[in-house]
Amino acid sequence: MIQVRINPSLSERFPDIYLSSREKFVEVRQSKNLEEHVSKIRNSINYTLENIKDHPVVRAFRDFYWEIGIDPTKIRPASEALVRRILSGSSLPEINNVVDAGNLASLETLIPIGIYDLDKIVGVPVLRFAKPGEEFIDITGKVKKLEPYNIVLSDDVGIIHIFPHRDSLRTMIDWDTRRVLIIGCGVKGVPRDLVEYAVDRVLHYLEIL
Which residue among 38, 101, 135, 206 is least packed, with the fewest CB closer than 10 Å? Predict the structure, then answer.
């Protein structure tokens, strides 16, 4: 079992950052009844596009973004972006059962979740501050030079995630993926048991999609 580490200098600066992780063998395929699950979550939501920013979990991530120098009105926390999508009448993009399971769990809990191909990870992942000018290749293939305030998850090869909103191309889930690492992200103001629950919900959706 991989134990994802948090760099001591990051822990000192942000002692409330919390990660929950699970490993899982998977069979990547098209999802079953994705829209049915999206509709069920949409119907259970008791907030709107206008007031979602005031939800305590969304507010916690927005406050964290401001603290690290990111404008959350321009770069939204991944979970908030997903919820805004379905509240505006759109559905989720259907990717595959693994990615879709993560998106559903994130929609349900408002917790950002990353899922990575475990066989593409080298060494032990660590959450840390980016180095000035360090490069990140996102899931679309776009190259971005990072600033020291960026927080990243990296392995022995390079960056696999910008915390907590963007995954890398190298460790993305594809049709040949057989083992995944699931990570839920928490910050100050987000209950740790909610982060744990969110990761468990990914496992639940993997069983039924």
Answer: 135
